Amino acid sequence: MTINTKYVGKAPNRVEGPAKVTGTAKYSAEFEVPNLAYGVVVSSTIAKGRIKSIGADKVLALPGVLQVFSHENVPRQAWFDRAWKDDIAPGGSPFRPLHDDEVKFSQQPVALVVAETFELARYAAGILEVEYKEEKHETDIEQKRDEGHAPGKGKSGYKPPKSRGNANKALDEAEHRIREEYIHGTQHHNPMELYASTVHYHPDGKLTIYDKTQGVYNCQQYVAKVFGLSKDDARVINLYNGGAFGSGLRPQYELFLSVMAALELKRSVRVTLTRQQMFSIGHRPHTLQTLEMGTNPDGTLAALKHYCLHETSRFEEYTENVVNWSGMLYQCDNVHLSNQVAALDVYTPQDMRAPGAATGSFALEVAMDEMAYAAGLDPLDFRIRNYAETDQSENLPFSSKRLRDCYHLGAEKFCWSKRPMAPRSMREGNRLIGWGVAGGVWDAQMNKASAKATITADGYLTVESAAGENGTGTYTIMTQIAAETLGLPLEAVTFRLGDTNMPEAPVQGGSWTAATVGTAVQKACQALGEKLLKLAQKMDDSPLKGASLDDVEFVNGQLRLRTAPEQSVVLRDVLQTSGEREIAADSTAIPNLINMAKYSMHSHNVVFAEVMVDEDLGTVHVSRVLNVCAAGRILNQKTARSQVLGSVVWGISMALMEETVPDHRFGRYMNHNYAEYHIPVNADIHNIEVLFVEEEDPYVNPLGVKGIGELGLLGVAAAITNAVYHATGKRVRRLPIYLDKLL
Ligand code: MOS
């Protein structure tokens, strides 16, 4: 059965849009449960040391304060004597809040104050006196340049592919060479919605947990393992996320603290982190990268070396895939890639939208621009000259790759051919104008997922799978796929997600939800279609007798023969004749391992940026960004475009504004609030255009989708950095490009 295109590939509005704008969409801290108590976290003021005392007595004397949990009284049976972790967690031992008196990072949770009201809990947490014995800390990766080590411990530790050719020799012999270091600081997850968990404690001791997470099943597993519960005892629900971007791939400490408090107090508890505490839940690591490149006389790449060092915590070895992309984006026979980590007294870094690739593509693509200039070549022409027809790292053909078409389409739309090569050659009054180009590559991944499709006698279809909705459009695209597969109007289909009572889906991440859950939804609907066909064939005088599923199609509420569309039955008649109140089918979809072994599956993009730099003030105005993406089939033009628009805004942020600034004397992030952690506002955002070059890809998955959640961020910061060079002649190699760097 193939997918028709009544809905798939079109641009329907978000099906959950009305729920969101009218406030009926509920987020984790908004669920009303009876007899709720409120927990507020107290965070460490030191970066490293021991807790000497927790002054709980004074706080417990306040009427309405229920308990002060700390390492002194945290229930042993409940807490992480089992240091359980999931398959995608970094190597090492996950952070166990309130486990003992040791402080491992600034802002570590050291106590949870629970009270009858939120206001009281907040007040009580504010006056809790915690005494520490400080120890010497290290928080600066730039002091650890020589102390990095290759990752080894982590199951998910990224290791670069084997070197190919001889990069050192090729560099020695190259016509032109560059070698530069590129640096970006730390960025913290700051989705609009704060991390929160509302735990409903039922009279029988079972829990319903509304947690801000990208994976309800992952949270359920943790809760069951850590607290020794059966999975039936802990149902986890998340219907909407106010943004997550990777911060909810692993459970955060509000989940464990709220569950622990609920089990101990035998009542419902909600824990919400403050905006400042959001700066303690994982971050994009501060990263140092070095790129070396050389070219042959014909402008082809002779050699490429990419080295990265980034921070991790003392207790987990988080690694990021920063360098691997450099071995596959361009054709080059002499490549050496390496990455190292160094442990600091910080919380473990964490995946943040296009982890590794967003930052790796910054360094690689600025270096490509520098190399193009060193070789006297137009930066886009230089990329086209070095186009990778195959994935040399894997030694595999791409399942599909239309990056060349992206280059040509983007160049034409942006009028790239009008770009003078020399920096400082375009201006408008006192504003220097520059054009830059950059791009990237991201994995097209799929995982195992299950879905269940149920149709009722009135012809109304409900499909469920415990997927996530980070604001990406999951509800909408799954509704489209289901409606398309069974030939129903969108209004007759409801997609439900985010509940461990539903069939299992993986965490929503890696841009794999469209492929993963989409395929499961399609398969469940096909399985239901097969049941409906059998029922239709049982009807008297059925024109479909003897037909297989491939012979029929579901269109406009009818089931009909492909070869003779007038031979049809009305779906509702089938259901009514069957006498069943509802018919259901479930299905599990897994990736095609044979195709995965035969093809390299990736999405690609290219970004063109125009900046205007005030010559006197050094301010950078990003006047135009064009992002052209090749990501297989686009399921919904509107939600896909929104994903890329958001990415471009984030890329502008990364290039010009966003950075968590530590004061290493205290080992503490000083701008841990929205006032001083700068991100763009509307006034910073101007013309953004998004184009898709669609790819027919029969190998990635049955839907042919590659995912679009992360791709759009790649190359944005580099394109802006390159445009700034073109405007000013100043090469910036450390993000963000604060204006003093241009004066
Ligand atoms: Mo994404 S960083 O895998 O949520």
UniProtKB/TrEMBL annotation:
Record GO terms (molecular function): iron ion binding; oxidoreductase activity
Pfam families: Ald_Xan_dh_C, MoCoBD_1, MoCoBD_2
Domain of life (superkingdom): Bacteria
Ranges of biased composition (kind: Basic and acidic residues): 135-150
Domain spans labelled Aldehyde oxidase/xanthine dehydrogenase a/b hammerhead: 22-136
Region (Disordered): 135-168
Residues annotated as signal peptide: none
Protein name: Aldehyde oxidase
Organism in which the protein naturally occurs: Solirubrum puertoriconensis
